[in-house]
Write a structure and sequence with these properties.
Blueprint (H helix, E strand, L loop, with lengths): L2 H13 E5 L5 E5 L7 E2 L11 E8 L4 E4 L4 E3 L8 E7 L6 H14 L3 H4 L2 E7 L7 H9 L6 E4 L2 H10 L4 E6 L5 E6 L2 E4 L4 E6 L5 H14 L2
Length: about 220
């Protein structure tokens, strides 16, 4: 087998990570369609425990709508040194609430001044059902400071693609309802609106807290 084919198979295997249907199971497909090279935490010279990116994602200067109905630009409306971005939806029965709870718990382990330097953006992948009030009520279960955003599905898919998150949209279920396939990674952006690290849905609370604190320190 040629070296090029070996390399292609390796990167294909790395890419087969977390696309979540949120229906109680987990699907396997590309977690990283943007093609960023992910290094293992052990290889990160900056001491981060998440998956670090050799080619950073840039937060696109796109606007969505927040839970109060106001326009929210992902670049100009984010005022804190560290921005965490997660795509999910309120009807997700397992993975989304687990990730939200883990992030909220990790943030409580930081001292208050550090905690105040972190902003989480929850971008719905199910805008048909996730109205502003629905998202707000959902996020308040975890942390009232979390920002919820919605828009049209094409807008959301466009933003998700720019930061390497697959969003499949609605998939009908035999029961008559539907699930929404989406990547379950949390992406960490610094003050320059670039992301060098992400955390998959199985990241520990301790690792999340460690990295959130380090990102704040590095972006002051």
């Amino acid at each position: 087998m040629s070296r090029n084919r070996n390399a292609a198979l390796f990167f294909a295997a790395v890419a087969l990570l977390a696309l979540v249907g949120c229906s109680g199971g987990q699907k396997q497909t590309a977690d990283n369609p943007g093609g960023a090279i992910i290094r293992t935490p052990a290889g990160d010279p900056n001491g981060l425990r998440g998956a670090t990116l050799d080619r950073p994602y840039a937060l696109p200067a796109k606007s969505l709508t927040d839970t109060d109905g106001n326009e929210f630009n992902l670049v100009t409306s984010t005022k804190k040194p560290v921005t965490l971005v997660f795509f999910g939806y309120t009807n997700c029965p397992d993975v989304c609430p687990t990730v939200m709870a883990d992030v909220a718990s990790a943030l409580t382990k930081l001292d208050e001044p550090t905690r105040k330097q972190v902003q989480l953006l929850f971008i719905t992948t199910d805008p048909a059902r996730d109205t502003g009030p629905v998202i707000r009520k959902y996020l308040d279960r975890f942390d009232p400071s979390f920002t919820g955003l919605t828009g049209t599905l094409p807008q959301i898919k466009d933003i998700a693609k720019a930061v390497g998150v697959p969003v499949e949209g609605m998939q009908k279920l035999p029961s008559g309802g539907y699930e929404v396939g989406h990547g379950a990674q949390v992406i960490g952006f610094g003050a320059d609106d670039k992301a060098n690290v992400l955390w998959l849905s199985n990241a520990s609370i301790g690792d999340l807290s460690h990295d959130f604190g380090k990102l704040v320190a590095d972006n002051q």
